[in-house]
Amino acid sequence: MPSAFNFSISPFDALSPEQQRALRASLDIAYYPEGQLILDSGAEPAHLWVNIKGHVAQYEGDELVSSFGPEDVWDGRALVSGRSSHRFVASEELIAYQIPRATVLSLIAENATFGALLFADLGAKLSALAERTDAHELHSLVLSRVDEAFLRPAHTIDADADVFSAVHLLHTHDARALLVQDVRGDSPTLGIFTNSAVQRAVLDGRPLQQLKVRDFSRFPLIAVQPGDTLGDALALLTRHRIHRLVVTDGPQIKGLLEAMDVFSFLAGHSHQIALQIEAASDMQALTRASGQTTRMVARLHRSGTRVALIARLVQDLQARLFERAWQLLAPPDLQANSCLFVMGSEGRAEQLLKTDQDNGLILANDYTPPANLQDICEAFSQALVHFGYPPCPGGIMVSRSDWRGSVDVFSARVRAWLLQPDGEALMHLGIFLDAHAVAGDASLLAQVLEQVRHGSCHTDAALARFAAAVDAFGEHGGWWSRWLHLGAQDQGMDLKKEGLFPLVHGVRSLAWQAGLGETSTAARLQALAARGVVSAADAADWTECLHLLMGLKLKAGLDELAREQPVSGVVRLDVLSTLERDLLKDALAEVRRLREFLRRHFRLDVL
Prior knowledge:
Low-confidence stretches: 133-139, 264-268, 483-489
Oligomer: single chain
Distance between the termini: 59 Å
Number of strands: 20
Largest sheet: 4 strands, antiparallel
Structural class: alpha+beta
Strand order of the largest sheet: 1-8-3-6
Strand content: 5-15%
Shape: globular
CATH topology of the domain at 321-456: Beta Polymerase, domain 2
Radius of gyration: 28 Å
CATH architecture of the domain at 321-456: 2-Layer Sandwich
Helix content: 40-55%
Mean pLDDT: 85
């Protein structure tokens, strides 16, 4: 009876002590020489294997699709389904534990988490992981429910009441805000009257008794539900530039959620960074505020915050940062007659750590920009360098004239990209489809994007050429062979090339074909599922895949920053845990499945 079995690896770390004893009692050890077929496609497996020494190659037909090294577990799905869909061969001398099928099925029946981690799909595995997260992660601020936070009582006043009465009510209840009830019309609405409204009323100059509350209130309310997470509430506070939310449970008002009550103990959190950005009067102050975002990302990641939420917060803060920098550099007339926008991962709200700049500027057709526009744009690009965003190697920045122009000029560039779709044109088109306005008149960007999504050059051939870029990085399965030899694992894997780019670009291609306005990959998948382009299950799986790859890339990047190394986007295979390797394999299998879907959907084989 082997006693050295490692119960700290997934999924065995989910077993209770009694279940561990039952498993240990049934263990056996097997030896397989190099090249031996261990499990053939279509065969019924009698065991679950856990490698001790050596590697196993997994084939689909003649194609190598995965590899399993020491302490890797296989083939749980075949064990449960009763039949293997792949062929497994010892790629070198192999010593492995064999766990009888009856033992495994018994453990699955007793322990749902073990079963999910063993054979379920990617989404189920991540859900199981969430359920067994460490206690400090489960109780982190951003994962807590809104109704777990301190809610201030909600006091109500009629919209037609005078401001003096509102001030008196604020003083009586020591409150900072009142809910305002407007009963005019068929459907009564609620707004909010705050201390800042009192200041505006005083500056109005008329007696407070003559001023109506409705004229100094904000409509409509921005609300959250008691079951929403505080992280989602944080995102709303940042996006709408407000200091409080009303908490509603159906028609019932539960109270007010104040930002200061949520974040007073989280120094440097996003809401406080946003306030610093708004208060900045020079570039030095903006640089100091920008320097806190990476620390915020690291703190949220350590606390177990969802990657999607971190990315949303980063996008909101980045937009505020860029907008404030533009306000400090550009004259008011330029701000009013232009649209500053970001692209790529910044535009998709999928950037977690600072990367190369991708931005541009669209001008109104009838506007004559200042003579020193080039100097203004160069100053902006240089400011971003000070904030930690390196210049784009391809020159996709406002400081380059190719990424500035009127609506008509930009529209002509887009048509040229569509009519002459060489490699560079397709790259520019893909980046531009992710454009997101951060300052100025967003309608200018919308006019150009509308032509891209619904223009006359939107043909099947153009779409197919565009989608074919998912195979831009050549061989996608050969890297698995690196796992056949442990010494080669420290070469690392570029997750952008192997996983994120084909996933993001594939979904972008489907979204362009459908004429969608969404820019984030997750939102595009949700919209594609709503239109029946992809199934709801596929949309969920590919969204989970996206977030897993983003999380692994973030972890690797934070590790590089901790070692004072530049962020490379490369994940070293030798430092991944057994569970991380398992999840990565599942994620890359999903990317492969998406590629196959795209080849059929766009008929890429006929290009």
